[in-house]
Amino acid sequence: MNLFIPRTFMALPLRSSRGASFCGFALKCEGGVSMVQGASRGIGLQFVTQLLGKKDKGHVIATCRNPNGATSLLDLKKKFDERLSVLQLDVTNENTIEASANSIRERYGYLNLLINASGVLSKPEVLQPETTLSKVQKSSLLFAYEINAVGPILVTKHMWPLLKLGGGSGTERDVAVVANLSARVGSIGDNQLGGWYSYRSSKTALNQLTKTVAVEFARRKDPIICILLHPGTVDTDLSRPFQRNVPEGKLFTKEFSVEKLLSIIDRVKSNDNGKFFAWDGQEIPW
Ligand SMILES: NC(=O)c1ccc[n+]([C@@H]2O[C@H](COP(=O)([O-])OP(=O)(O)OC[C@H]3O[C@@H](n4cnc5c(N)ncnc54)[C@H](OP(=O)(O)O)[C@@H]3O)[C@@H](O)[C@H]2O)c1
């Protein structure tokens, strides 16, 4: 899958001579450069759709495990050929993460926004949300942990230098943003119902890892903040097998949820670093 070189960019002061390198000049794209990881379907695909559709500027890099099979993403690529790049990335394969970082470095030189949207709740024969301790298996705990916690943090590690160079330049924010898609069930303080051991604990781990990165970025004075987002219960493949008990009016469309989440990202300030927000902007206890 080829990346494109955007034509609409503008000169902006760079913090480092290692900045964007189109045509050999230090240039930054108007509207910024955003990456959505886990963009083949569901909430990730909706982020890409809204980042492209709601604004007429800015470039989006969408990553997914199998670009050739991501038909909706490829349809978007046809429509927004100049502003959308698609790269292959599987969070369980660090080489693909590193290769994506290298491609982005070569073509853009920096990032202003990273959204980690990939995640798994169930997979036939591998992971079923556990209703009781007796159903907990080492393999399903590790499977959930690898995709939901380890993956996003490795992506953040490899994109870090690019985010540091990007900061808030070309956008309306002061800082670059890492937004990791978590889930309210990852909150220990909010755990009233129990169950879902693998998914729940993998999101708790993601929360702790993201908070720890946020502390490090702040200590280093890097122009990056990290937040965790709970999208609500959203009508996607992930929630579909479990929608029976969702109260009326509590099952959101992807369009509604992502609109809310993007407004949180757009308004985020430095003192939001390390916070865990629900779709409505309310903070969720750890
Ligand atoms: N939907 C909800 O109600 C809800 C609620 C709370 C939190 N969340 C969180 O929101 C995020 C998005 O969920 P969703 O509802 O959009 O789920 P979804 O529709 O099932 O989509 C999951 C995405 O994750 C990708 N993915 C899975 N394994 C991957 C891997 N190894 N490497 C890269 N990508 C991988 C999938 O790619 P493939 O197409 O290749 O499988 C797909 O793009 C998740 O983190 C989820 O935990 C969702």
From TrEMBL:
Gene Ontology molecular-function annotations: oxidoreductase activity
- What protein name is recorded for this chain? Uncharacterized protein
User: Taxonomic classification, please?
Assistant: Eukaryota, Viridiplantae, Streptophyta, Embryophyta, Tracheophyta
Taxonomically, which superkingdom?
Answer: Eukaryota
Q: Which GO terms describe its cellular component?
A: cytoplasm
Q: Which SUPFAM superfamilies match?
A: NAD(P)-binding Rossmann-fold domains
CDD domains (UniProt xref): carb_red_sniffer_like_SDR_c
Signal peptide extent: none
Species whose genome carries this gene: Protea cynaroides
